[in-house]
C-alpha cells in the first residue's frame, strides 16, 4: 500500500525535487529519504497522501539544497544542471518544458533555497501561497513576499526558448552539418547575435571554463572544437530538459567513456544558447528517460 501510493506520485515528486536541486542524482537521493519517512507512517492515517508527500519532498529538497550550495560555489568552471532525457509529453507542456530547460535551471540557481522552493511550487506547479506556507513552515504573508521577490528576479533574467519540435530538430541538423563541413556562412546564419555557449566539464574533462558570448566568437569556438577532432557528424537526436539536443558517442563508450551532450536553446529559428555537458559524472546518470509531471489540476490540500 505505502509503496503503491509513493509510486503513483513519484513522477511529480521527482520533478519537484529536480527543479529545486538541478540534479537528477540529488533528486533521487531526496526521494529515497522521503520514501523512508513515508514508509514509517501508516498511510491509512494520512488523509491526503499526495499533499503529505509533496511536503516531505519539499522539506528534504530544501535541506539538501542548503547542504550542496557550498560545493557548487567551489565547482571548477561553469556549473550546468545535470541533464535529464525527457519524453514528448514534456515538450507538449510549455510551462514544464520551460521550467526544466537549461536556461531556466541556471536562473533558478541564482535564487536562495527558500526563494527557489517557493517559485517552483507556485509558478510551475500552481500551489497557493497558503499551501506553500504549510509545506515550508512559514507564514502565508512571508511566502507571498518571497514569491514576488523570486518572480521578479527570474523574469529579469530568464531566456525564453522553444520546446523540442520538428522545426528545432531541423535547426540542430543544419547547425551540426555546417559545423562538420566548416560552412561558416551557414553556421553564422543559424546563430542569434546574442548567442551564448555554456560548457560543463566539472574539472574532469577539458572544455571552455567561461561562457562564450556573441555570434562571431561562438562560431569560431564551434569551428575550433570541430577542427580539434570532435565529430559533429555522428550523433543521436534526443530531447533533453524539454529542449532539442544531440548526444555524441565517446571514442570508447564500451570502456565507460560517456561522450558528450549538446542541448540547443532555439527562438524564432535561430540558436540563442548552446549547453554542452562533458562532465562524465553527470552524463553517466543522464541517459535514462525521466518521466516528469506537474501533477495536473488535482487539488493540493494541506
Automatic annotation (TrEMBL):
**What name does UniProt use for this protein?**
RNA polymerase sigma-70 factor (ECF subfamily)
Q: Where is the RNA polymerase sigma-70 region domain?
A: 6-68
Q: InterPro entries annotated for this entry?
A: ECF_Sigma-70_Domain (IPR052704), NTF2-like_dom_sf (IPR032710), RNA_pol_sigma-70_dom (IPR014284), RNA_pol_sigma-70_ECF (IPR014303), RNA_pol_sigma70_r2 (IPR007627), RNA_pol_sigma70_r4_t2 (IPR013249), RNA_pol_sigma_r2 (IPR013325), RNA_pol_sigma_r3/r4-like (IPR013324)
Keywords in alphabetical order: Sigma factor, Transcription, Transcription regulation
Self-association and partners? Interacts transiently with the RNA polymerase catalytic core formed by RpoA, RpoB, RpoC and RpoZ (2 alpha, 1 beta, 1 beta' and 1 omega subunit) to form the RNA polymerase holoenzyme that can initiate transcription.
Q: Which family does it belong to?
A: Belongs to the sigma-70 factor family. ECF subfamily.
The top of its lineage is: Bacteria, Bacillati, Actinomycetota, Actinomycetes, Kitasatosporales
Example GO BP: DNA-templated transcription initiation
> What is the species listed in this Swiss-Prot or TrEMBL entry?
Streptomyces eurocidicus
Q: Which residues form the RNA polymerase sigma factor 70 region 4 type domain?
A: 102-153
GO MF annotation: an example: DNA binding
Amino acid at each position: 500500500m505505502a509503496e503503491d501510493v509513493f509510486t503513483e506520485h513519484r513522477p511529480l515528486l521527482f520533478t519537484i525535487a529536480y527543479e529545486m536541486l538541478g540534479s537528477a542524482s540529488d533528486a533521487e537521493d531526496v526521494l529515497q529519504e522521503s520514501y523512508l519517512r513515508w514508509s514509517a507512517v501508516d498511510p491509512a492515517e494520512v488523509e491526503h497522501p499526495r499533499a503529505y508527500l509533496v511536503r516531505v519532498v519539499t522539506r528534504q529538497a530544501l535541506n539538501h539544497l542548503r547542504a550542496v550550495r557550498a560545493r557548487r560555489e567551489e565547482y571548477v568552471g561553469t556549473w550546468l544542471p545535470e541533464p535529464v532525457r525527457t519524453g514528448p509529453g514534456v515538450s507538449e507542456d510549455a510551462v514544464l518544458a520551460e521550467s526544466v530547460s537549461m536556461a531556466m535551471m541556471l536562473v533558478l540557481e541564482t535564487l536562495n533555497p527558500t526563494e527557489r522552493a517557493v517559485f517552483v511550487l507556485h509558478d510551475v506547479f500552481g500551489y497557493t501561497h497558503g499551501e506553500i506556507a504549510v509545506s515550508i513552515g512559514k507564514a502565508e504573508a512571508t511566502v507571498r513576499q518571497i514569491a514576488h521577490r523570486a518572480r521578479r528576479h527570474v523574469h529579469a533574467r530568464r531566456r525564453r526558448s522553444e520546446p523540442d519540435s520538428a522545426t528545432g530538430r531541423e535547426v540542430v541538423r543544419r547547425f551540426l552539418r555546417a559545423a562538420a563541413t566548416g560552412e561558416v556562412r551557414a553556421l553564422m546564419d543559424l546563430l542569434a547575435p546574442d548567442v551564448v555557449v555554456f560548457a560543463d566539464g566539472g574539472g574532469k574533462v577539458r572544455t571552455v571554463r567561461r561562457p562564450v558570448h556573441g555570434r562571431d566568437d561562438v562560431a569560431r569556438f564551434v569551428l575550433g572544437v570541430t577542427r580539434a577532432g570532435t565529430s559533429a557528424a555522428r550523433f543521436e537526436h534526443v530531447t533533453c530538459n524539454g529542449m532539442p539536443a544531440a548526444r555524441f558517442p565517446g571514442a570508447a563508450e564500451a570502456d565507460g567513456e560517456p561522450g558528450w551532450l549538446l542541448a540547443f536553446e532555439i527562438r524564432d529559428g535561430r540558436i540563442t544558447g548552446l549547453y554542452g555537458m562533458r562532465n562524465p559524472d553527470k552524463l553517466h546518470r543522464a541517459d535514462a528517460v525521466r518521466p516528469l509531471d506537474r501533477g495536473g489540476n488535482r487539488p493540493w490540500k494541506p
